[in-house]
Amino acid sequence: MGCTVPGMADHSYPELTDPRTAIVTGSDSGIGRATAVALAQAGMDVGITWHSDEEGAEETTRLVREAGRRAVVAQLDTTDAPACGDVVERMADELGGCDVFVNNAGLNGGTPFFETDWETWRKTVCADLDGAFVCIQRMARRMVDAGRGGRIIGVTSVHEHQPRVGSAAYDAAKHGLGGLLKTLGGDEPGVRPRRRVPEHDPRARGQLPHRRTGGCGSRGRGGGRR
User: Fold this and answer.
1) In this structure, are residues 178 and 68 in contact, taking their beta carbons and an 8 Å threshold?
2) Active-site entry in 23, 170, 195, 216
3) Residue 159, pLDDT score
């Protein structure tokens, strides 16, 4: 079964002949929602997470169910890394597994280097890298233990490759997430990691939410949390 996701056009899962379940963090709006709906339309039951926009998550749930698939919904705060790992584990239990995990939750912010205090640094890195690490590790281990392998997709940023002036913490976290996914691909051949940069997709412009889901302050592209 193949699957095409808005902003992530080359997604396919050749090693999974019958992917049945997916979890998309930060799927209450924007690219997260579009991804969750696309996966449902491809025949997967979907786990949906939100940070502050519960109504948005309810709309994503409606769209997933409208596609004829089951939806599981949970609140997720990626700045509480140990707890967010437990959240995605419970969702996978309820779904009956996780064949595809999309790490879309994150915090976007811009603070010049000399004005970045320790609290701002830690909040951003925790939301965009620490929480992602815990969730990705939990789901990758689950995929391997299930004997089916799986796909891990990390939504990074154009600023993983092209630094944005005045966003030291965010750029560092996105560089870290990209490196984490590259390393995972070498460490565990049963899990296929992919990095996706939604800013490269013209369909993403103007629809990126302030909050995607996540953990510390505001998240999402354009200055908030997703």
Assistant:
1) no
2) 170
3) 59
Closest CA to 177 of 224, 124, 223, 119: 124
Determine whether 170 is an active site residue. Answer: yes
Q: What percent of the chain has pLDDT over 70?
A: 71
CA distance linking residue 212 with residue 226, whole number of Å:
2
Calculate the CA 201 to chain-centre distance: 17
pLDDT of residue 220: 35
- If one counts every other C-beta atom within 10 angstroms of the C-beta of residue 141, the result is 13
Q: Superfamily for 21-204?
A: NAD(P)-binding Rossmann-like Domain (3.40.50.720)
Straight-line distance from the first to the last Cα atom of the chain, in angstroms, rounded to the nearest whole number: 29
Contact between 143 and 189 (Cβ < 8 Å): no
β-bridge partners, 151:
100, 192
What is the residue type of 172? A
Structure tokens belonging to residue 201: 């997709």
